[in-house]
Here is the input.
Amino acid sequence: MIPHAPILTIVLPIFAAFLTPVVGIVAKRFGVERARDWFVVGVAILMFIIVASMVPAVWGGEVLVYKLGGWSPPWGIVLAVDGLNLLVALIIAGVVSLVAIYSVVYMERDSGLEKYYTLLMLVTAGSMGVTLTGDIFNLYVFFEIMSISSYALVAFRRNWDSVEAGVKYLVIGSLGTSLLLLSIVFLYGLIGSLNIADLAWKLVEIKATQPLPMIVPLMLALLVTGFGIKIAMVPLHAWLPDAYQAAPSAVSALLSGATTTVGIYAMLRVSYLLFGALAIGMMFIVLGLITMVAGGLMALVQRDLKRLLAYSCISQMGYILLGVGFGTTMGIQGGLFHLLNNAIYKVLLFMCAGAIVYRVGTSNLDELGGLGKNMPITATLFVVGALAISGVPPLNGFASKWTIYVAGMEAGQPICTAIAVVMSALTLAYFLKAINLMFLGQRPEHLREVKEAPPLMLFPMLMLAAFCVVFGILPGLGIDLVRPAQGAVMNQLGYIGSVMGAG
Amino acid sequence: MSLNYIIAMILFTLGIYCLLFKRNLMKMVIGLQVMTNGLHLFLISLGYREGGIAPILAGEMLERGAAAELAATAVDPVPQALVLTSIVINVCTMALALSLAVYTYRHYGTLNPFRIRRLKG
Here is the structure.
């Protein structure tokens, strides 16, 4: 492990965020303005390497506890890395690296790019902070850093649509984070501590008292609402389709791959650790089913590619919630595997949509058609992503959805499983519709000259598609990746013991 | 002391009301600020102690071994640090919200959120 690896993963993007404009100015003077973009790509890849260096220790069963300033828990702020946050950190670092490479070409026609890269790095720093921290107020602060920079990224182009989406996202998102703060205030008032492990330990006694203090369910409700807004759980999803449709496609890919993953992680970590998996599993199952069905049905009627992808993103969140809601070993494994897979193919699909927007200039399905002849590689990659998300074997979506179905049957929830299977077929239906409208059929006259996407945009898409196929053919590999995370979810006492024992 | 909590609750409720029912982006931003300030008041009141002293452990107090005495009489410093952080975050949110409101007015000619809805589907 690289020394100080946990804090480096957070500090590196923060410094890079504010160094980027300086690098941009210097590079401009020497006539190599694109050096700034490659600087960001380099930082993202370096971050990935640092995160990966923690893998051997954590998968060996260790919980890395890093005390900031040498203050021991529960008084100081700690960063605690176990299997669960490591998986999420790997996903974020990977997605950010690929999005940075993609942005080099995709964003080249925009002005004010130093601001774009600064915000990109700030979202990364915020996501990493939420993921690695072991202190609940610290988590809130990083959550706000991530949220505020993503509002700004959504409104980055300052067109009428992106500004409208940005305002909606900002109002709903700020309400959500205020509820989070309220819940943290209640927790502090009740227990007098901010360390998550310490809180969990002391809550055990409070939960044992009869009758249960009213404040405990209230805190749970506030936390789930606050994080639910970030992962666009129905009925808190109103901002997401607008934001993903109006934002630049690279930003949509980043948001769907990184921030929703972080939202799920924060919800799992805080609610499972503080309130216990069995007590609230049913809530996740119900919310997951509603989210899955509503998102899927809304996606069916969309006429805009990015909006369709946004609704299918909501629908996939439902599968993850359903999987982890079952609370069994297999269910949590399936849910986390689906979290990983969702980050892979959702980013791939948004990048394909971005390639089409880059070459054609619109993502309206009614104005597209017959692009399969012009953009064969993009079309193939989109089909791979679409089949993976619909759960067609032998792609990765099938492996994780199958695990969730089996877990559902084992957990004695055949009706939930049946609904999930039907929704999977519905997913295939709306993606086939999109493929048909975009790549097949009559090609309008003005699309005759459309060229294939540039190679630098195809490269991250190819990598993601390769992951889709590899995890589909070798599902054991993916399960091995998520098994430490699943172990961490089930072994909450281990986490508490390691963090508290570090003092 | 309980007056603090009552006022905090009133501020929070007023803020949420303003955010949900006012038909002007500026007023919604004000509502957001009122709501969070209610939260801040609540948090500060949690850590306050009637007649408490400032939580500073000076050198000569250490020599007297007065750490326990300080802990018994001082106000809780943690909420104050939290509120300071939260105020800074709020300023950021407000600045971004106001600048977005300016752009919205340029594009739409109105600040009524019910008329800013061209994105549909």
Remarks:
- Residues 5-501 of chain A form one domain.
- Chain A has a mean pLDDT of 91.
- The radius of gyration of chain A is 22 Å.
- The first helix of chain A runs from residue 5 to 29.
